[in-house]
Amino acid sequence: MFRGLRHKKSFLIIRNLIAVELVAYGIFVLLAIPFHWSKIYLNYFGPVAYFIPFNVLELIGLAAFQIVVILFVVTRSLRDDNIGELIKSGEHERLEFKTTMRWDVKRGQVNKELEKGVMKTVAAFMNSQGGQLVIGVDDQRGINGIGHDFDSLIKKSRDGFENHFNNIFGSMIGPEFRRHVRLSFHELGDKEVCLVQVERARRPAYLKTDNGEDFFIRTGNATTSLKVSQAAAYLADWHQR
C-alpha cells in the first residue's frame, strides 16, 4: 500500500514542479513584454541599474522565485512522507489512529460518540506524556481519509474541519488547553488525513460528559479512565514531576 503511495507521491511532486516551472516562465514572459519596466527601473534605481542591468535582474528574480517554490513543494512532500512512516510504525502509547472524527462509516451518519472518542484520546495525551493522533486511518493502518468528515460539515474544507474540532474541544475539554494541540493536514495518495499533535499539559485536563467530568490517561496503546481514588493518586504524583 505504502509503495503505491510513494509512486503516487513521486508523480505529484513531478507534476507540481512542472507547474511551478510553467508559472515561473509565464511570469518571465510577462516581464519581457515591453511594458516600460526597464524605464521604471532606470528612473528609480539609476545607480544600481548601472551595475545590474534589468535583464540580469529579471533572471535573478526568476531563479529566486523558482527556488522558493521548489523548496516549498519538496518540503511539503517530505512532510507528508513522514506521516506515512509514522502510520507504518503502528499504534503505541504516544500514537493512536481514528478512522474519522465524527462520521460513522458503518451507520453512514454522524456519530457524536466518535467525537467524544477523539477528545478522550486528546485529553489522555495531555494527562500523560503527550502524543499524536492521526484521524483518517483505521486500526489496521488503512488510509480512509477524512473526506466523509468534510462532507458532514457545513464548511467542507480544512478550515471547516479545524473549526469543528475547536468547537468540540472547547466544550468537552476547555479552550484554555487548546494551545497544547496543533492540527496539520497531509495528503497520502488521493486521501487526506489530519495529524493532531498533543503536548503534555501543565495541569490536569478533564473530559466533560453528561455525568460530570472524567479523567483519562494513556496506558500502553490504550486510553484508560481513572476512578476517583486512582485519579487522586495520579494527580498527587503529577505535581511532583
UniProtKB/TrEMBL annotation:
Sorted UniProt keywords: Membrane, Transmembrane, Transmembrane helix
Domain Schlafen AlbA-2: 91-225
Signal peptide: none
Regions crossing the membrane: 12-37, 49-74
Keyword Transmembrane (UniProt): yes
Matches recorded under PANTHER family: GLPR-RELATED TRANSCRIPTIONAL REPRESSOR, SCHLAFEN ALBA-2 DOMAIN-CONTAINING PROTEIN
Protein name per UniProt: Schlafen AlbA-2 domain-containing protein
Organism: Candidatus Yanofskybacteria bacterium RIFCSPLOWO2_01_FULL_49_17
